[in-house]
Known about the structure:
With 437 residues, this protein is an alpha/beta fold. It has helices spanning 48-57, 64-67, 100-106, 125-138, 151-163, 178-186, 198-211, 222-238, 255-269, 289-297, 322-332, 341-353, 360-374, 396-404, 425-435; strands spanning 8-13, 19-20, 36-41, 96-98, 111-115, 143-147, 166-172, 190-194, 214-216, 246-250, 278-284, 336-339, 384-388. Helix 4 (125-138) packs across helix 8 (222-238), helix 8 (222-238) packs across helix 9 (255-269) and helix 9 crosses helix 11. The structure holds ligand F0G. Ligand F0G is lined by residues 123, 125, 148-152, 219, 250-257, 313-314, 359, 361-362, 389-390.
Amino acid sequence: MPGATIGAPxxxxxxxxxxxxxxxxxFACPACGDRLEVAYRPHGAxxxxxxxxxxxxxxxxxxxxxxxxxxxxxxxxxxxxxAFEPVTLREGNTPLYTLRRCARAAGVDALMAxxxxxxxxxxxxxxxxxxxxSMARVGGFQWVGCASTGNTSASxxxxxxxxxxxxxxxxxxxxxxWGKLSQSLDYAAITCQLKTDFDGCVRVLGEVIxxxxxxxxxxxxxxxxxxxxxxxxxxxEQFGWEPPDHVIVPGGNLGNSSALGKGFREMLALGLIxxxxxxxxxxxxxxxxxxxxxxxxxxERIEPVRAETRATxxxxxxxxxxxxxxxxxxxxxxxxxxxxxxxxxxxxxxIGADGVGCEPASAVTLAGLKNLVRxxxxxxxxxxxxxxxxxxxxxxxxxxDFHRDAAAAGDRELRKPPVxxxxxxxxxxxxxxxxxx
Length: 437
Ligand code: F0G
């Protein structure tokens, strides 16, 4: 029905603007080699009131597609052929939490967290996996694959297993969190730990897909970003379609920041929101190619770095979607900063101490916010949303190391190491007394 969706989808090259019908296996433009995005040819003005109402009402429907926090926004997504149901595990519909303690620590009046770790496999990747893996099934593929720092692989493995497809995971050996690796095994993927880093895994997979019929599910796949953009839609719905002043996201391969930015841009064009929030991207200082690109080259080019950070999810030196992320920073007027390992560790413990919790990579958002408040970029009275990308249980080793590190000088009041006592109530009561009333 004309006007019922935002338009007819097609793939557009972000470099030469070509309309691409036959992308390369790694979703590049065959003419100029740049990245692709899903664009929509408008076919009549969609009714924004109708869409907002439909999206809300679907939450109380009984069908899996409506209950998905991604597919309930399907008027803004590529449509699957009638014979295909989306592959869904009820992703999306994630909570918005208030962070009181973190707000005080950062120096803002109010702080919210959109917790994407509350997705079925514990990270935001599920919101893009449901769309891209559904496209793989439409394309008739048996095999899907990805290079990953652990969350994409966990998500892909789950969705592939659920769809009855086979999954190949390439991860850097020794540099991913156990929670994530164990998920990939549990969801029965073929898991290869390569003796290289994430960027090396991407290179190997790029060669594999040229020689083997395997559908690529890294975030260069534009259908991943379409699913991930719905988080922006959902966030605006949760805010009554009144955007916050700032949205802050971690930056790794830069797919997520690009996707959220695309969501906000589309909503503005559709008249669903009246202005854009500033979208800021935070990287770890040991893995900060975008920060350097912005500072040294004004975002015009990027130089890969040798990435090192204990926030392994964002241990990425050569981000695929950097051009899209630069466009988002420019359009929304967002900041791009990096934070130290110590700042990440403290921020993670503070988010935990608010009863919310997240994995290390997600905590860069709070660490970054503190710096942005200090520099005056974020004002005390402005509204801020941190996008927490992964669940606290993804990387328990990191958490244990932080709290058990009794020798550490800083963040004493944040460290809560387990206390070993005799099995004696008096010992426990004595401990409580020493804690004070
Ligand atoms: N936060 C978490 C928890 C992640 O897993 C990732 C990326 C990011 C942030 C960064 O998002 O890459 O879109 O900029 N993880 C990927 C993976 C690379 O393989 O799981 P990005």
